[in-house]
Amino acid sequence: MSAVEATAPEAVTGRPGAVAAPYDGGGRARGPGGVRRELRAVRVLWHREMVRLLRTKVQIVMGLVTPVMFLLVMGTGLESMGAVAGDAFAQFRGYLFPGVLVMATQAPALAVGLSVVMDRQTGMLRQAMVAPVRRVSLLLGLSLGGATCGAVYGALVLAISGAVGIAYHPLLLVALLEVAVIALLFTAGGMLAAVTIQRIQTFQVLMGLALMPLMFLSGAMFSPTGLPRWLGIVVHLNPLTYAVDAVRRTLPGELDMGGYAGSPQIVGWTPPVAVEVCFVAVLAVGMLVVAARRFSRRG
Q1: The domain containing residue 171 runs over which residues?
Q2: In the predicted model, is pLDDT for residue 6 greater than 80?
Q3: CA angle 7–11–13, rounded 5-degree value
Q4: Is residue 284 part of a domain?
Q5: Does 157 fall in a domain?
Q6: From CA 184, how far away is CA 177, in angstroms rounded?
Q7: What is the tally of structural domains in the chain?
Q8: Hey, what's the torsion of the CAs at 55, 57, 60, 64, to 10 degrees?
Q9: Which of 233, 239, 194 has its CA nearest to residue 215?
């Protein structure tokens, strides 16, 4: 289902042959039932992303290949160094797991941004604008759909946590909620890039160049403490550092490689998990607000 089909007037209003209501200067539909219409548009676009996810089972499997390779190949290989380098490396798979969990949410969340760029090039995005809803509602529905898809991938990775020595515990559900917030952050970044960039090739190159350094500099592979000054500054300025750390501290068990790895510190202060999650959520909402404003202006 395309973005046009999902936001056509009859899809939003529920009446076949419905005609788009007139807009005011801010892109808001005038007329009765405005709030219900906006919520329906959000729900329809969220449902569209769920349908796309369920129809691409092969893509789901392929999306899990990289996280599993990191855990079972890279993690096991480095754990084998424990006999030589010390006991810290013997727990490396557990330390690596939160970063792999965050990594798994990237692709499905950013795919929504790519679909927006593709819809713009094919002309579908312009046709979607005739739906009698705010453009912000279109953006919100797509973003929530992308975040949900990312959370589904995260849940699948959490299902294999026992393979790396992490116990199946109710805290996994709390970690899943944190993963959903992180997936919203990825989706918000993808949507902001999508409403700014017009070429698919440029979008793909930019996302590839941005995400790889962000993940490597997030403390997913190594501790954010005890680094050279220049590298430590970069790691602490990276928002994913706090996202990965929040998940690591929430998951059951000791995932700090026997005390070798620590949490990021700001002038000697270690942010609580709640503060780290709130920071990620506020950043995601801020990016969505900026994207919504650009989306409304570009029309």
Answers
A1: 3-13+32-298
A2: no
A3: 110
A4: yes
A5: yes
A6: 11
A7: 1
A8: 180
A9: 239
Instruction: Supply 15's token pair.
Output: 């009446």
How many beta carbons lie within 10 A of that of residue 210, not counting itself? 13
**For residue 133, what are its two tokens?**
């809803």
pTM summary value: 0.81
- Does any domain span residue 249? yes
* Residue 111 in tokens: 């795919």
Residue 202 has which token pair? Answer: 């440029």
**DSSP code of residue 103:** H
Average pLDDT of the residues in 35-46: 84
- Residue of 97, 102, 65 whose CA lies nearest to 79: 97
**Is residue 23 in some structural domain?**
no
SS3 189: helix
pLDDT per residue as tens digits for the range 54-92: 777 777 777 777 777 777 766 666 666 555 455 555 577
* Mean of the per-residue pLDDT values of the chain: 79
Residue 255: what pLDDT? 81
Tokens for 147?
Answer: 């975040």
Convert the pLDDT of each residue in 15-36 to its tens digit: 444 444 444 444 444 444 678 8
What is the Cα Rg of the chain in Å? 21
How many CB atoms are closer than 10 A to CB 28? 17
Q: CA nearest 31: which of 20, 21, 40?
A: 21
Q: Which residue in 187, 164, 144 sits closest to 44, CA to CA?
A: 144
Q: H or E segment at 221?
A: none
Q: What pLDDT shows up at residue 299? A: 52
